[in-house]
């Protein structure tokens, strides 16, 4: 199966978090050695919110349901780079009237 692409645009101004995975060893004299952990030690996490009519939110939820939290998908993050991401959970809610919302966190994924 081909890798799907997430194309819906989130609400404005998402703020991502970039994390560097490292290993370190501390010594008795206060000295510490730190090194990168693995070849993909830089990861991104993006908490996102989507809003709109019920049909739009159901389309987004259906896309995420197809991935089942384990299958990575392509998404272009707000800085313009396309990468693989996974989404382990999401929260849909009714905001009143014909407005529905869905919040989700996209975590960067890597091919094995």
From TrEMBL:
Top-level taxon of origin: Bacteria
One Pfam family hit: Phage_min_tail
InterPro entries tied to this protein: Phage_lambda_TipM
Name of this protein: Phage tail protein
Native species: Pseudomonas hormoni
Classification of source organism: Bacteria, Pseudomonadati, Pseudomonadota, Gammaproteobacteria, Pseudomonadales
């Amino acid at each position: 199966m081909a890798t799907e692409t997430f194309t819906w645009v989130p609400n404005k101004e998402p703020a991502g978090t970039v994390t560097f995975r490292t290993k370190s060893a501390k010594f008795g004299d206060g000295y510490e050695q730190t090194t990168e952990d693995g070849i993909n030690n830089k990861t991104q996490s993006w908490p996102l919110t989507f809003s709109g009519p019920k049909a739009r939110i159901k389309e987004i939820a259906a896309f995420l349901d197809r991935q089942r939290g384990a299958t990575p998908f392509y998404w272009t993050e707000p800085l313009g780079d396309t990468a693989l991401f996974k989404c382990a959970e999401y929260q849909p809610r009714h905001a009143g009237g014909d407005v529905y919302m869905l919040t989700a966190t996209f975590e960067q994924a890597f091919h094995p």
